[in-house]
Amino acid sequence: QVQFVESGGGLVQPGGSLRLSCAASGSPFSISVMGWYRQTPGKEREFVAAISWGGAFIYYADSVKGRFTISRENAKNTVYLQMDSLKPEDTAVYYCAAAKGNSYRRPSDFDSWGQGIQVTVSS
User: Fold this and answer.
1) Band (110; pLDDT cuts 50, 70, 90)
2) Distance separating alpha carbons of residues 114 and 117, to the nearest angstrom
3) DSSP label at 45?
């Protein structure tokens, strides 16, 4: 079982930036893919970005492509989500997650989840 510590959320004005961090512990060697999802009240959890643990592939949702950047630092077992040009519609609780397999498009593809961190984009 992998545990996560997420940090970096908060309140930012439209057009601003935030960087989320997700530090994994427990059994990080079992991770194949790390992902970021987000969720707003009354809506399903939405895919944001994913990166293979070895960095061979990276995928983004169309809604964040060109604005968000996912990266990882294996030595620290940490994955980051750099969010630039933030919009009010990016407001959500953001979750990091780990998958043992190579699929990433659905929440059910992931085996372990962080506790979630609030990101609010508002003037």
Assistant:
1) very high
2) 9
3) -
